Amino acid sequence: MRKWYHLWISGALLLACLTGCETAQPSAPDTSAPTSVAASTEPALPPKPTVEMATQPAATSMPTAAPTVPPTVPPTAAPTEVPTSTALLPADDIWVQSAHVVLPLADSSAPLDFAQRGYPAPVYWPRAAPNGAYIVYGTEQGGLALVDVRAGASRTLVEDGTGVAGYSFSPDARQLAITTITDTNWTLHVRDLENNGAQVLRSGSTVLTDTAPLPLVPGPVAWTANGIVVRNLLYASDAPPRDLTVINPSHPSNTNDRQIYEGAFIDAYVSPDGSRFAVVTGTRPMGGGVPTTQIKVVDQQGKEFATIRDEQPGLLRALAWSPDGTMLLYALAPDYETPNVTLHLVHADASNAQELDLVAQGISASFRDIAWRDNATVLLLTEGEQLQLDAVPVDNFSATARQPLRTFQDQHPGNGNARILYVPR
């Protein structure tokens, strides 16, 4: 296993897993073309019979009988061709990932089993494109795989053994920003997913010297209309990410890059329109102890907009912006060991805070993930004997208002890593 992959799994990935999986990126309308179905050829209509008028006979001739006109036969209707689809999952439905299986919400749709189809197993950071066209994820050997959900095919984007520092879909889902590490260099490039072309945006060295600045590696966090948001990682260390920055993908140099947050942080979550950033700071003791969490919202200029949570004991398990960017939903646990999780719903200006203690309100199943179905409804994924997906209305944020959406029978997640992978917008 390469040095970087060891770092990625032991450092950045551990932080990502402890703080909760990243929620879905900002959604964009599905601009992909539907699978084309050849139109059936319309059969030619039979020629219209022509009736010739009889010539007026001479007076001495016998009358000529009128010609027989064949009956008109209606044309046979064109056969109806039943359209077929090669799509692995419906793009208009919610997807839940359970280990190497992706489960659509509707039980009438078949699940996507990576192992059955011979795809590499998804090991870390699986993400769905904003329009449901692709799924990208890290593999066990440190590579990056892409599943084309529409075409039903898989391909390798980054070969095994190459370091991957992060990736994110463009808003229209046609491109993917990826940072890779080979030998002593890193490269941030944009891959065109339709023609497989690539463009280098930034590159640099991972070598620490006495005169050069820290060899920070920019890892994509989100791609919005305002640019590619990256967090900078210190290569070959367990240091937390730092210096949240927005990169202009159309600018050839870093002169237009804009720093949003300076200093170290634990994680960052970007609002769907890219105008605000929920920055998570605090402590994450690796050898035991009680973690602490602070959540602040900053604007595009890096100015603090609101303090959602002052630093205090607690472990952030997940955080998600509402689709319209006006509210935050986050899940907190007391520490690494206690299974109890409390959900918090709050406006982005820190007003109108609500709280839902899962255990206190009779939800004994283990917490797995949260997301937004729409601006009025949040999604809660839990795991007991089965995997359960529920909806909770924002205007009645309580366990009694839970609306069961589906219990995934006989789909028990492996290692408790189930998550909400995709929600259509």
If you had to describe this structure to a student in words, what would you say it looks like?
This protein is mainly β and 425 residues long. 4% of the residues lie in helices and 42% in strands. It contains 1 helix and 28 strands. It has one helix at residues 3-18, and strands at residues 95-98, 101-104, 112-113, 124-128, 134-138, 144-148, 153-158, 163-169, 175-182, 185-192, 198-205, 216-224, 227-234, 242-247, 258-264, 267-270, 276-283, 292-299, 304-313, 315-321, 327-333, 342-347, 354-357, 366-374, 377-383, 387-393, 403-408, 419-422. The strands form 7 sheets. The chain has a 4-stranded antiparallel β-sheet, with no helix packed on it. A 4-stranded antiparallel β-sheet has the order 4-5-6-7. A hairpin with a 4-residue loop joins strand 18 (292-299) and strand 19. It is globular, with a radius of gyration of 29 Å. The chain starts with a helix and ends with a strand.
Largest sheet geometry: 4 strands, antiparallel
Count of distinct strands: 28
Strand order of the largest sheet: 3-2-1-28
> So how many helices?
1
The coarse silhouette is globular
Radius of gyration: 29 Å
